[in-house]
Amino acid sequence: MPDTSSSKGHEDGLSQAEANAIVAAGGHFLGASEGFWIVFACCVGGVLLTLFVVIGAVTLQTRRRVTQAEEDESEDEEEQKDLPTDPLPNKPSPDPGFLQRVVFNAGKYGDGFAFNADLSLRAAFLSLLCASTYFIPALSWWQSNGWEMSYVIVLLGFTVYLDLGTTVFLAWSGFYGTLLSVANCWLLFGLYPNGTSSDNNSEAMLFGYVNFFVFVWLMFGLNFATNAKMFGLSWQAYFSMCFLNPGDRSVFSRGLWDIQLHAGETGALMGTIWGCGFALLCVLVPTCMSALGKAQDLALETAWTHGRLLQHVLEHSIAKGGRQETSTFGAEVKKLREHVKQMEPHLANSWWECFDLGIAGRSKARLSKLCTALEVLTDWAEASILAVEQVFEQSENGQDHARLLSKLQPELYHLSSVAGLLLRVCASIAVQGRADDRQDQVQDLLGALGKEESQLAARCQAERQQLPQRGFSLKTVPELALAYSLSGYSRQVAAHAAELLEEDDTWERRGLLCSFLYGICALFPGLSELQSWKYYAENLKLMTTFLACFFVGMYGIGCAYGVIIPTWSSTAGGTVAYLIFQGGNKAAALKKNADRFMGVGLGTLMGQLILGSACSVSQVLHAPWLFYALLLIVFALFFASFYTYFASPNFGYVGLLVACFFADQLGKCSVMVGSSLNNYEILMAQLLAIIVASLMDVLADSTQSIKATEVLAEFGSLLETALKTFETKGSSSEDAVHFHRPEGLALLSSASSAGDVAGKEPRILRLPWRAELWENLMDYCSEAWRCVSLLEYTAAEGGAHGGKVRKAVAVLLTSPAYRREIQQLQLRASRSFNLSKRFLMHDYLDHDLPMEALEMQLLESHKLSLREKHQVITEVGAVLPTTPASVSSLVDDQLCEVAMILTMTEALAVRLAKVETVLVQQPEMWLLME
């Protein structure tokens, strides 16, 4: 941590006697000092003001969207009149604000650059205001009141982030952590006003140690939010070091009721309040960077993209197409999934903006339901893509193309148009947070959607009767699957729209008091992990690291031969408190600690070089005006550092540390105080903290490459289990479908996060890692799991909502050929994932007999999609009813259900074939083929 936590921070200020005299002169009111009431008013007033300002800003932003939607309502009504032929409206585009639109030219340089530059400009400008208090005499009153503005910049850097919700949470947790350590400081010096320098030195010393260990244990054991632990432990290292040092002369308040405004802990608390306020100002002015606003923009854009994708799929599936179009559709679906994935954290963060209150709270609740629906809808859209992929494959093989689809084109296009419009209306309602004035429109669209589904089902049945084998043949199966997937998509849109019309005011039942209590509980995100041994092992490592640095700072290093680190210095403990919670483990330790070295060293040395040189030149030339020119350099450095922090995925932590440790040098060279203490001791203490944290990472953490490989193997077992379950459950229509989708997604997410950092592990540990193989496996496994999920959706009567197994599954499983195909897929999955695990856990020079046996099996196998597809169609066609039952939707059509399941099974086989292909491309396989 920067030197604001140094035990030397307040020795040059007021003496304890002078501070006591100020308290006595101010008198007491209602049993407490004047300083107590000022601090109390600042804390309570700051929290309440923040609450109302944040709620007001987000509510105003949401109401503006409602007003804009009402202005466009007439255009939507005109669009609804001509549903089948009306073209898709223009893509919704949010207004990024003047700075992003004009100053940073978002249209030319990209939205990402403009957004990050806008936020960096705000943070740099406020940091400049804090820095100017050291160089402009007229602003020196900030320092004279005991507020270290360099610490305000540090807190600003660790608090402000990409949206208002995250910033509010970081500010609240940072304030809470500082308040806990300050309150503990009041307890320490309230019981022993002079610390260990008093007459009862041994008693105070014992109490100080016990108090310190209990505080540290509670901070780690209760698993507070990261910012709360960082600021709480960092300040407690300083307070306890001053208390335990008999020679310390720093000024502290003597208890809660005798708070002194110039005391060390009061300066920390007030600096935290100012830092939190500036951080919130960054994301509120001139435009509000709201997480809820981002979620609303994504919802509108995603709903619009869904409608466009459906239209393009239909157009290209009926026309002559090929693999290029399918790849384009696949990229579009991947983009949709990314949008939905981005919406989830935005909605989670938006609670800290609206607290589930008012129109913004209603919008958040409806958007959460829409996000869940969009996730399922994206699966159904991908089912359409997979069906189109097989339609195109038939065209390339010389078979008739889109014969049935051409006849169903009008009905399919009408159905997709109504579904797309209904989805856009649902997204608009979710953004507005109310459906009162659009219920009639939704009801009309639901009726139109049901009518279009019935017409499509009737037309499809009529056309099938005119085809050989009742329309169930090798070339019509993917076409029927495409029609089924669009019908299932429409059914899911209708289900969400019906749910949207139901009044649900649960988000309005939480008042301000409940929101405050919920905010307190949110500071303990890891309470659910308290029973986990892994949780205790990780916290034991972090606690050991912090305590080691604290006691090394207490006893010093090299004191007998020239000081390397002086005694009674809290810099090492304060610094490591900022470093140990910033993510990373053995896999990322090298990268993380390199960032630490660069950030801490570069920020400190640049501060010493730039500020120290300017200070020296100013004193020689007697030119204090030089500091005004220096502010431009300071502003440019802050802007570059914050932009790196916000924009760079690899060096963001470096940018944050450069800004914070550069800010720490501001107080050491200013027009008021001139040149100050050399940074040697501080740098050595910070270096020690980094080395200790690095060693603990390497010694205590597990390797992520091994973890990623084990999770991938577990995923392979789950995929095999899902196929077995599908085969056995289909034998009885009374059984309910068990959805394995959440388990698989969780395993894929865990494997992906571990694999992202596995490549950063130092190779000296002989940990093999094949990055290209891993990336391909992750892509193909994700695709394969979506095929399995669609199989389970189709097998259940309630679709994604669950239900009994459809009769069509039992019909399909009457085919011995299909059962053989499912069993063959299980064997292929088992072999592929076992071989993948062995490839990822062995070096190229290792030889393993079981591994070579699996390799030979793979080389001798035929990587086909489905070997007996024609036989399956023949066997299933023989048991299907001659006259299909009349249904209102293709989702309930038994023939289309069978076609959908068969198509998704073939798509799964194609994905497993891709996995086998990347395994064959490994060097060991080439050696076997020679």
Automatic annotation (TrEMBL):
Region (Disordered): 67-94
Biased composition range(s): Acidic residues: 69-80
Entry's transmembrane regions: 36-60, 123-143, 175-192, 204-225, 540-557, 597-619, 625-646
Keywords: Membrane, Transmembrane, Transmembrane helix
Protein name (Swiss-Prot/TrEMBL): Uncharacterized protein
Native source organism of the sequence: Polarella glacialis
